[in-house]
Amino acid sequence: MQREDIQIISRHSNLTEETVAKTLKESVYNGKDAWQKFLRLFFMSLGVGFTVSGILFFFAYNWADLHKFTKIGLIQGVLIITTILTLLPQINKKIKNIILTGASVLVGIQFAVFGQIYQTGANAYDLFLAWTIFVTLWVLVSNFAPLWLLYLVLINTTFILYSQQVVKDWSEILICTLLFVINLTFLVSATLFVKKKTTTWFLNIVALTSISFATIGIVIGIIDKYQKHEESFSFPILISITSIAFVLGIWHGLKVQSGFYLSAIPFSLIIIISALLLKISSEEMMFLFVSLFIIAGVTLTIKNLIDIQKKWANEK
Amino acid sequence: MKNKDDIKVLLDYFQNTNDKPLILDEDAIVSAYQKDNTDQSLAIKILSMFGGFLAILAFLGFLYLAKLYNSDIGLLLSGGILIACSIWINKQYNKIIMDTISVSAFILGFILIAIGGHIEENGNILSIIFIIIALGSLSIVQNYILCFVSVLIINQSILMLIISNSVNDVVHIYVAILALAMAYIFLKEAKIITTNKALSKLYNPVKTGLVFSFLSGLFILSGKEGNFPVSPEYMWLSSIVIIPVIVYLTSTLFSVLNITEKRHKICVYIFTALALSPTALSPAISGAILIILLSFMINYKTGFVLGITSFIYFVSQYYYDLNLTLLTKSILLFSTGVLFIALYLITYKKLTENEKV
């Protein structure tokens, strides 16, 4: 029983406040077990979060009196202790994962300290690359969604820094294309190998990131008209990969009955078509038309989604 | 969406649990389920909002290029017509597929009135008009998105009233009132949805709207809103409401968690008060905690995610702005972290002991 059921039924009946309160408490609100679990995770996350940021601030203070060996030694010491903690059998799995996530952040701090000592700058792409490489094993072992998210952020950051610091002449379209491909590869493999239902939120974030990069790249391509030589190469590639990915995305959304894919992809298409329309003409009437087009497009998408959801409900 | 058998099971459940004989309108219930305005997924709501937003941007581009914003009366009139139309569309065809168009027309109406009425000069009168229109629409239609937007418009208008009268510090009291209103709505769910049909339909959107409004108030109090400076000496004003509400929440948790011993209860009270006292001068943090606890209590996921995100943001900002050396900050953060890990270990031990008994 869900909140909506109680609301609908109470609207059309004489259910008393007491019954509704009791039903809400029993079937909707969180009970003892959920609260215990939540409080434990909450305290542990706060504990690890605050401790790790304490350590971060400590090294950011850049104590001049501290010898570089002491600095790196200190942080490695902390790192070793935390990693050993995750090997203790008494600690439950979720808590171990939270500790490991904290340890992964510590690895980053270690490289930042390294960068601080050897003056490489804190945002050098190789530091992020090293950070990414050295937590890979933990990410794979723990298979913990928040840690995967950190990993993905690291990969994206490394790539963006690389494109800014090393190859300076890549076009925005090429960068968007590669970011799209990276996230898409990630999404496809995660969808194929992960069967747990609890990680839907994570997959949706990855999908949203991929769709956003594709949309941004295509919109830039449409508006800039890809004049540069290399853009005339990467833009068609971006469009073809995006088309295939969108078709597969819709198919996947229909198959696993996910409303997310069936709304995010059409929305991206609406944005792309609007950009195309505004490229054709930027007269006032076109703006009026685009605004009507967006409303019509979104309305159609929603109508479709509702019809499909109805079908799913009847199939059950 | 449910089919007829599912509905039957639900109705049977209530036949057996209601304390007086259940009178219900089964046809109305079945048709309510079949109507497409139930069970809107979050995706649809977000789609309507973003779609509406983009459409409004394009329309404003049209107005600008066509130079149609020169006539004040024209703008005021069309704004009024748009709002009336959107309410009428909703009243007439209460379907989700009309949401995008009605929410676009609704918000656009307010924007046109704001431009036509020269909001920079007539802030007071326009804010009051906006509040009246939004309240009016809440009483006429109970469509989810329109109600949600109305609550946000009311909140924004109140903030505008505060700014245009240069009484910025009233915002402390306003946030305190919002905290109370939010806690009331969260805790009195059963009472509100059984009072009458309109209130029952208003419940969800108003709840979400209040959470967003409360967050916007907290954001102002955190001092990051450049146009809205508030003086720090009244910071405690909202805290003296938020912190007691959190303590009250912990007291309602005792029955959920089966904590009966007086000694334990006193420990929990003391700990909560102690843990929250450093946040007395930064109500944004305790406010975010309030949202997290309330949302988790009634299993309200959107609020929970909003609460966690804003909590992380406000805490990071608090330490970032803190006027201490990094070393002192480091020690503060580190000891807080250790305190929470200790707390985890204590509660873990206590809870597992209880389970064994």
Number of domains as seen in the coordinates of chain B: 4
Regions with little confidence, pLDDT below 50 for 5+ residues of chain B: none
* Anisotropy-based shape of chain B: flat
Rg over CA atoms of chain B: 24 Å
Overall mean confidence score, pLDDT of chain A: 87
The helix/strand series of chain B, from N terminus to C terminus, equals HHHHHHHHHHHHHHH
Element pattern of chain A in H and E: HHHHHHHHHHHH
Mean pLDDT over the residues of chain B: 86
User: What distance lies between the first and last C-alpha atoms of chain B, to the nearest angstrom?
Assistant: 42 Å
Shape of chain A: flat
Tally of separate helices of chain B? 15
Summarize the main sheet of chain A. none
Verbal overview:
The complex is a heterodimer of chains A (316) and B (357). Chain A has 316 residues and is mainly α. Chain A has 2 domains: 53-149, no CATH class; 169-316, no CATH class. Chain A is built from 12 helices and no strands. In chain A, helix 5 (93-117) packs antiparallel against helix 6 (125-142). The longest helix of chain A is centred in the last third of the chain and has 32 residues, at 284-315. The model of chain A has no long low-confidence stretch (mean pLDDT 87). The longest helix of chain B is centred in the last third of the chain and has 31 residues, at 326-356. Chain B has 357 residues and is mainly α. Chain B has 4 domains: 1-34, no CATH class; 42-167, no CATH class; 168-321, no CATH class; 323-357. Chain B starts with a helix and ends with a helix. Chain B has helices at 4-17, 26-34, 42-65, 72-92, 99-116, 123-140, 144-164, 170-187, 189-195, 197-221, 236-257, 262-276, 283-297, 301-321, 326-356. In chain B, helix 8 (170-187) packs parallel to helix 13. Helix content of chain B is 78%, strand content 0%. The interface between A and B is large, with 87 and 89 residues.
